[in-house]
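S.,

As promised, the 1,3-dihydroxyacetonephosphate run. Input:
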Amino acid sequence: MKNKSPLVVANWKLNGGTDLICASVSKFLRHNFKVNIGIAPPYVYLGDMANFLKNSSIMIGSQNISKFESGAFTGETSGQMLKEVGCNFCLIGHSERRQVFLENNASCQTKIARALEANLMPIICIGENEQQYELGLTKHILYKQLHESLQGQDLTGKELCIAYEPIWAIGSGKAASPESVQSIHAYIYEEICTIFDKETADKIRIIYGGSVNKKNAAELLAMPNIDGLLVGGASLDPEHFSEICELANKQAANATVQTNAEAVLA
Ligand code: 13P
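Predicted complex:
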């Protein structure tokens, strides 16, 4: 399953401003990361960020997308608009949007379709809350989130990513263990193989988010079913976030060496 180079995404949420943009841009323009890196700042900074980073490999994405294409929908931003200002991806169905703004699997399904139409890679966020976790309902919740939002999507020639973010791990300092994420990602993979064909499912990255930092990133990335990371709090410090990206870079380089060695020995 791990034949994709890792994807590390920063979700700034409702944080950051000109200072963080300047610090991040100057940090990231100096690096030449081989892994895929994305930054999702608040909407108003997307155009500037995309312009500043246009000669780099860093991807820019939004934290949300409208389920409408145009019209009298005050406060909304469409997929076409996001694409036009230089976005490559958008987060969809983050647990904060589900909890605070009452988004659900049906609205996520429409938003995923809108993102795909606009050639943006949707990063669809799923995960159980603490009570569901304690009651052993994790797989049940994930099953519903996956099937209800992904059923019927046409991924021909498109990219999609799934971020498993257990709500109890977000901002709590209690990341899920690499072993448990590994097994949940295996379950997610099994389910997406039933929604799409195996070839399509194999191209979908499954990344993890929830209290990721430079201390736990390497262990998480070392797991075969973890294709990358979605980072909140730790991404607000450009130094810290770039250390996480360095770890992903190193991990990807080791994996390439190993694959080459296996090919020689085969
Ligand atoms: P933290 O990394 O702050 O736990 O946030 C995770 C998250 O919600 C990323 O989308």
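The beta strands are 7-11, 36-40, 59-62, 89-92, 121-126, 161-164, 205-209, 228-231. The mean pLDDT is 95.

- D.
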